[in-house]
Design goal:
The complex is a heterodimer of chains A (158) and B (615).
Chain A lengths: L2 E5 L9 H11 L10 E5 L4 E5 L8 H5 L5 E3 L5 E3 L9 H5 L6 E3 L4 E3 L9 H5 L5 E5 L5 H10 L1 H6 L2
Antiparallel strand pairs in A: 1-8, 2-3, 4-5, 6-7
Chain B lengths: L5 E6 L4 E6 L2 H7 L2 H12 L13 E5 L13 E6 L6 E6 L3 H7 L4 E5 L6 E6 L2 E6 L8 H11 L6 E4 L2 H4 L7 E3 L3 E3 L4 H7 L2 E7 L9 H17 L1 H10 L4 H7 L21 H5 L10 E5 L9 E4 L18 E2 L3 H9 L6 H14 L3 H17 L17 H12 L4 H5 L3 H7 L8 E2 L2 E2 L9 H9 L12 H4 L15 H16 L13 H11 L6 H22 L10 H5 L14 H12 L9 H6 L3
Parallel strand pairs in B: 1-6, 7-12
Antiparallel strand pairs in B: 1-2, 3-4, 3-6, 4-5, 7-8, 9-10, 9-12, 10-11, 13-14, 14-15, 16-17
Helix pairs in contact in B: 1-2, 2-21, 7-20, 11-12, 11-13, 12-14, 13-16, 17-19, 17-23, 19-21, 19-23
The chains are: A alpha+beta (158), B alpha+beta (615).
C-alpha cells in the first residue's frame, strides 16, 4: 500500500520537533536548515503550517532532472540518488511547491523520502499534526469530521 | 558536545567581533546559560558598575540543550547588571532565537562597551558584523524586525531587540525576540539601549550535535512522554496557558489586587483563561485563537490572541487587527488585577504594546497600580500625570499609560522608572510593591507564604521564577504543602531555587518542572554532554549558581536588609479569603533560610559554604 504524509495545520503548534527529527535522521545532527520538512509561522493569522514534498505522481522534479538522478521507489516516493545528482538545481526550479532544495555543503539536492516508509517527523510530532496514512484515504479523517456534522447523517441514524 | 565551544565577543566601542573558545572548565562547573554567563559576568565586570554605563556587559547565553530535540530546548538568557534593581539580572526567553544562535555556531555572545551610533549585530553562521541602525532607531520591535529581514533578504533570520522603551531607558524594558517572546525582567532592554545596540539578528545553517545520540534520544523521548501524560503540562498549559492560574489563585485569596490592597479580584473571571476562550465580538470568535510552542517545546502554552476589532483601542488602528502573543497569567494579573481593570480586550491591547515596544508587563502593571493608589490618595494629581485620570479600574488609563510608557513620552517617562523610584519621588515609598527595586508578580505572600520568602531572597529582585513554590503550596507539585504556614518553607524555597538555577542553566523551560524533576532532566544532559551528569551534580551546580549570584549582589552593595518585603505585606493582614487575618511571616522563615543556605545571620555565605561549592 502506498502511504502519504497528511498534515493538519490546525493541530500544529510550531514546535519544530519534526524539523529536528528529520535533520537528525538525514544529517546526523539537529539542524532545521537541512530539514526536508519545514514549519511556517503565520502567527499573525494564528496558523502554523508544516510543509513538505507530496510525492507527485508525475513529478516535475523528476522530469526536469537532466541526469535521471530522481527515481520512483515501490512506494511511489521520489528519491534523489546522490551518486548521480550533479547539483544543477533544475529540479528546485521545476518543483511547483519548493520542496526540493539544494544543500550547499554536499552539492546535492535534498527532499523528503518518507524515511524508507517510517517517517521520523510523524513519530516526533507531539500533536499528531503529521500522520502517515493510506494515500488513497488521505481525506478519511476530514471526511469523517464533516460526515459527523451533517444533518443527513443525523437523520440517517433514525 | 552539546556545546559549539565558541563565544562571540563584540566590542561595541571598537566595532569588533571576535570569536573565542568557551571556557570548558567553567562549563563543567556552571553548566550553561544562566550559570555560565553569570560566571563570565562576575569574572569580567565590577559588581559596582553603573548598569547603564559602557562598563557593564550584556551577555546572551544558550544552554547545552538549546537547539536540540529535548522538549523546550530552545531557551536563552540575557545576563547583565540590571538597571531596575542594581542587582544581577538574568532574563530567560523562548521563541526560536536561542536555538538559531546555536545553529549559527555560537554558545554565547558577550557585548561590551558602547557604540558611538546606533547599530545592530548581524550574525550569519560564523560571520558577525555590526550594521548601521540609524533607519530603525526610534522604531518599535514590530517595525524593526521585518526591516532587518528585508534588508538582508533573509526571512529565516530570527531577531532579538528593543523597542522605543529600551532606547529611552525605561528601567523595565525587555529584549523581545520573534516579535512576542521576551527576556522580560529587570530592564535588560535598557542596558541594550544604553549601548546603542538595537538588535541582534541571527541566521544559522549549522547543526547541533550531542555526545551520545542514542542515549540522548532515549532520555528526551522518555521525558516527552512524562510531559504528555502530566495533567498540567499535557493538558492544562496547552489548553489554557499559564492563565489556567487566574481563577485558581483568585480562589486561594492570593491574587494581589489594586496595588495589593486586596487579595481577591472581583473581575478575575473576566480576564481568565476561560474568558479568553469564550466567543466574543461581532464575529463570535474568541480572544484566544491558537496556542503556540516555542522552539522544540511539546507543551505549547503560548497564547495567540486577537483584540476585538470594534474595541476602542483598535477600532481606528487596523495595524493591530492581526493575531499576536496573547495574555500570559503574569501579564493578565499585572495589567488587570493590579490596576483593577477587567476589560479583556484592553488588557490584550496593552500586552501587544508591551511586546511591540519591549516593556515588561509585570513591572509596568504593578507600577501603574502604585501610581493609581497615589492618585487616589492625592499624592499624584492630574498636573503630574499630564491629565491622565489614573483611576483604579479605568481601561482607558491603562491603555493610554502603556502607549506613553512604551514610547517614553510624558508621564510615561515617570512610569518607566518603575514603582520604587516613582513612589519615592512622590513621597509614598511604602506603596511600592517591590523587592530590591523590582515589582513582584501575581502571588500574594500572605496567602502563599513560601512566595514571600521567594520574593525576599530572589537574586534578581522580586520574582516568581526563582523558586515557584506555588507549585507545591497550591498545585501540590511535587507534594502539597500548606500555603498559609511558614513551617518548612525555608527548605522548600532553597530546594526550588537550586533546582531552578540548574534548569535555567540547561537550555530548558522551567514549565517542564510541573512534570519533570531533576531525575528526568539529568539523563538528558548526560546524553548531550561528555562526562557524568547526575542529579546531585546538577543540584550542586544550582546551589553554586545561587551563591555566585548572591555574592555578586553583596559586592554590589546589597545586604540582608534588602531581603525583605513591602510593609503592606508584613503589617497589614489580608482582608478576605483563606488568608484573612494573616501577614507574610518572613521573620520566621528568613533566619531558617539563611541557616539552610549555610549563610551567616547577616545573609553572607560562610567560608565553609563557599569552600564546599568551590567558590
Amino acid at each position: 500500500m502506498q502511504k502519504a504524509l497528511v498534515i493538519d495545520p490546525v493541530k500544529c503548534t510550531g514546535c519544530k520537533q519534526c524539523e529536528l527529527a528529520c535533520s537528525y535522521v538525514k544529517e546526523g545532527e539537529f539542524n532545521p536548515a537541512k530539514s526536508r520538512i519545514r514549519v511556517f509561522d503565520f502567527h499573525q493569522d494564528a496558523r502554523f503550517v508544516p510543509y513538505t514534498c507530496t510525492q507527485c505522481a508525475e513529478a516535475w522534479c523528476q522530469s526536469a532532472c537532466p541526469v535521471d538522478a530522481i527515481t520512483t521507489n515501490e512506494r511511489g516516493v521520489k528519491e534523489v540518488h546522490d551518486a548521480l545528482c550533479v547539483g544543477c538545481k533544475v529540479c528546485t526550479i521545476a518543483c511547483p511547491f519548493g520542496t526540493v532544495n539544494y544543500n550547499a555543503s554536499t552539492g546535492k539536492v535534498i527532499k523528503c523520502d518518507e524515511c524508507g516508509g517510517d517517517p521520523a517527523c510523524v513519530k516526533a510530532c507531539p500533536t499528531q499534526a503529521i500522520v502517515y496514512v493510506d494515500v488513497e484515504q488521505a481525506g478519511f479523517e476530514k471526511m469523517k469530521h464533516w460526515a459527523k456534522r451533517t444533518d443527513a447523517g443525523a437523520q440517517a441514524s433514525h | 558536545m552539546g556545546w559549539t565551544g565558541k563565544i562571540l565577543r563584540v566590542n561595541l566601542a571598537k566595532g569588533t567581533c571576535t570569536p573565542e573558545d568557551l571556557n570548558m572548565d567553567w562549563a563543567g562547573q556552571y553548566l550553561g546559560q544562566r550559570g555560565l554567563a553569570t560566571k563570565y559576568l562576575v569574572e569580567e565586570t565590577d559588581p559596582k558598575v553603573d548598569p547603564l554605563s559602557p562598563d557593564n556587559k550584556l551577555i546572551f547565553a544558550t544552554g547545552p540543550l538549546t537547539g536540540t530535540c529535548a522538549s523546550t530546548g530552545g531557551r536563552y538568557s540575557v545576563i547583565t547588571k540590571g538597571p531596575l534593581t542594581g542587582a544581577i539580572a538574568c532574563s530567560n526567553s523562548g521563541g526560536y532565537w536561542g536555538a538559531e544562535l546555536k545553529f549559527a555556531g555560537w554558545d554565547m555572545i558577550i557585548l561590551e562597551g558602547k557604540s558611538k551610533k546606533p547599530v545592530y549585530l548581524c550574525v550569519i553562521d560564523g560571520k558577525a558584523e555590526l550594521c548601521d541602525a540609524s533607519e530603525i532607531w526610534g522604531k518599535s520591535v514590530w517595525d524593526m524586525d521585518p526591516w532587518i529581514k528585508s534588508r538582508h533578504q533573509d526571512p529565516m533570520m530570527h531577531v532579538a531587540g528593543i523597542g522605543i522603551a529600551g532606547e529611552n531607558g525605561v528601567l523595565y524594558s525587555c529584549i523581545i525576540n520573534d516579535l512576542h517572546r521576551a527576556a522580560g525582567r529587570s530592564g535588560v532592554g535598557a542596558v541594550m539601549g544604553s549601548k546603542n545596540l538595537k538588535a541582534i539578528a541571527v541566521r544559522g545553517t549549522g547543526g547541533v550535535k550531542v555526545d551520545d545520540f542514542p542515549a540522548f534520544l532515549a532520555a528526551t523521548s522518555a521525558a516527552k512522554e512524562v510531559l504528555a501524560a502530566n495533567a498540567v503540562t499535557g493538558e492544562g498549559l496547552p489548553t489554557f496557558g499559564t492563565q489556567v492560574l487566574m481563577n485558581v489563585i483568585n480562589e486561594a485569596g492570593a491574587l494581589p489586587t489594586r496595588n495589593t490592597r486586596d487579595v481577591e479580584f472581583e473581575g478575575a473571571h473576566d480576564i481568565s483563561a476561560e474568558a479568553m476562550a469564550a466567543p466574543s465580538g461581532k464575529d463570535g470568535k474568541p480572544n484566544l485563537l491558537a496556542n503556540q510552542a516555542c522552539f522544540g517545546c511539546t507543551i505549547a502554552c503560548g497564547r495567540i490572541s486577537k483584540v476585538n476589532e470594534e474595541h476602542y483601542t483598535v477600532q481606528n488602528k487596523p495595524e493591530y487587527w492581526h493575531a499576536s502573543g496573547g495574555l500570559e497569567y503574569e501579564a493578565a494579573w499585572a495589567l488587570g488585577a493590579a490596576t483593577g481593570v477587567s476589560d479583556l480586550d484592553a488588557l490584550t491591547y496593552a500586552n501587544f504594546i508591551c511586546n511591540e515596544q519591549g516593556i515588561d508587563p509585570i513591572s509596568f502593571g504593578a507600577t501603574l497600580g502604585a501610581a493609581m493608589e497615589m492618585y487616589q490618595d492625592g499624592a499624584l494629581t492630574e498636573k503630574d500625570t499630564d491629565g491622565l485620570e489614573l483611576k483604579f479600574g479605568s481601561a482607558e488609563s491603562l491603555t493610554s499609560a502603556v502607549e506613553l510608557t512604551g514610547r517614553a513620552e510624558g508621564f510615561g517617562k515617570e512610569l518607566g522608572m518603575g514603582s520604587k523610584k516613582l513612589c519615592d519621588k512622590y513621597g509614598r515609598p511604602e506603596l511600592s510593591m517591590t523587592v530590591k527595586g523590582q515589582e513582584f508578580p501575581a502571588y500574594d505572600p500572605r496567602a502563599i507564604q513560601g512566595m514571600g520568602l521567594t520574593y525576599a531572597t530572589s537574586n534578581r529582585g522580586a520574582c516568581h521564577l526563582r523558586s515557584y513554590t506555588v507549585s507545591s503550596e497550591i498545585l501540590g507539585i511535587p507534594e502539597k504543602t500548606d500555603p498559609l504556614v511558614t513551617d518548612g518553607k525555608a527548605g522548600l524555597v532553597k530546594a526550588f531555587q537550586d533546582a531552578t538555577a540548574a534548569v535555567d542553566s540547561a537550555g530548558l523551560c522551567i514549565f517542564t518542572t510541573f512534570a519533570w524533576t531533576l531525575e528526568d532532566i539529568a539523563p538528558q544532559i548526560d546524553g548531550a554532554l561528555a562526562g557524568k551528569w547526575s542529579v546531585d551534580r546538577l543540584l550542586e551546580i544550582g546551589e553554586r549558581v545561587w551563591n555566585l549570584e548572591r555574592q555578586y549582589n553583596l559586592q554590589a552593595g546589597f545586604t540582608a536588609k534588602d531581603d525583605t518585603l513591602p510593609k503592606r505585606l508584613l503589617k497589614d493582614a489580608a482582608k478576605t479569603g483563606p488568608a484573612k487575618g494573616l501577614t507574610a511571616g518572613l521573620d520566621k522563615m528568613l533566619p531558617e533560610y539563611y541557616e539552610a543556605r549555610g549563610w551567616t545571620k547577616e545573609g553572607v555565605p560562610t567560608n565553609e559554604t563557599l569552600a564546599r561549592l568551590a567558590l
